[in-house]
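INFO worker-7 received task bundle
INFO bundle size: 2
INFO processing item 0
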Amino acid sequence: MPSNDPNINPKTPAKPKSKPTPATQKHPKLYHNPLTLLRAYRDVRLSLRLSMEQHQYDFEQEYGMTITEYLDDIYAAGAEFTGTKLEHHANTMKRTAEMLRLVDKSVHLIKEHNDNEGESYYWILYYNFLSARQLDNIEEIIQAVQAHLPYVTRDNYFDRRNRALNMFASILWGFTERSGV
């Protein structure tokens, strides 16, 4: 049955819808965005730690033993916990911990890269995103970096930060491709 829509030419076949690409997704800037990932790092690390502690506490309250003791007993008996709530939580925490480990490994590889440049990138990323205490402003970050590398100044800080983020992204996304994260 022909369409009554005047915008559709009946002689031109309709194009099939293609899969969305990062450029066509609703939030394209969130696709593999190292800045977004690093800004969430402290919160994710804390959340993972608290989640693990809560699961450990809940498990001990319910079963009267630690998760490790329970898993040792299950494995010794030859049983499995496939498809259980425990497996789901364990896999979720494992994936999150793996991503955090890849972030840490990527940042440490930067430090080993390119002598002083790599080390300056490392400290800039560390004090911006990874240190236990979030610094209040750029001046505090630069001052902390200068404790390790006095030649980093406000004048060259932002350029170095951008280069550090680019290097971080290149290393991290290479890791995630290989590991399937």
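INFO item 0 finished
INFO processing item 1
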Amino acid sequence: MQVGMFAPHEQHSPDHLARIAQRAERAGLDSIWTSDHFHPWWHTGAECGAAWPWLGAALERTDEIRMGTGVTAPIGRYHPGLIAQNVATLGAMYPGRVHVTFATGEALNERPLGFEWPDYPERRQRLIDACEIYHRLFEGGFHDYDGHHWDLDTARLYTLPEQRPPLYVAGNGPRTAEVAGRYADGFLTLVDIETYQEDLVPALEAGAEQAGRDPDEIKRIKQASVGYGKDYDTALDAVEFWTGSMAVDFSEDVSDPREIQKRARSTLSRQEWPDWGLITSDPTDIAELIERHTEAGFDEVELLASTPDLEHFVNVVGESVLPDLSLART
């Protein structure tokens, strides 16, 4: 089992997150997953730095820890060929340390820049285009591609790493899991274990079978949300920032963080905030969360922590959580 940290640009400044990445590496974590948003899920006190320049800076400040997006949506603002060029550049400079994750996205990344917000079937088709373009460009040489939405016209990546950086696909439903089975090196999800096992695993395996792939070779990653503090109430207070992501369905055409925040405050009671994730002041609870996902068949857990002191949380994971998992991680 590998354990990673989520670098939430929505909540922290880029420089602070770069320091968190350094601390995470020193603490013994395996990976950093950065958000790639234009707008955040909250308005008050929010940040929203850009993922790609931050990844270059954070990789340069560290030595071994793997980093990548979780997630990047090739829906409107990003042509998948440009994403591939970004990944290829980082992969050439930092071999073996880079990954990228595709998904069907959220309106808050597209609408503010003047792009349409298509319904899910359209976004799924654009995701498929993006996966095919990514694989073709990393084959080397020139490529044409006439996709459902995205095209290539005699396109070539002139700078390529020796090995293609892993392409992951993130999703919470079976239709996206099926796409991951067809194209991805790994599948990232937020859903609970029961939904994952009953609904997503069969779809992932079906997609792999369609593509003639071994589903056991597809890495399984869980993003686990943790509200952490010195006591339960402090930990729960830290969750409010993320309640916007609970008040708005990811497929909704809502992109103004002020509206999202207003909806969260008017529709969600404090008693509902624990639905966001694990709320705890005890590192043992975090270790048990990771162990449950190991038993469920996941290969990696990335921790999205909301806490008054993110550096302290990283230290706690390194000093009190990872040692309990040392046998499972060898």
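INFO item 1 finished
INFO post-check item 1: The radius of gyration is 19 Å.
INFO post-check item 1: The CA atoms of residues 31 and 315 lie 15 Å apart.
INFO worker-7 idle
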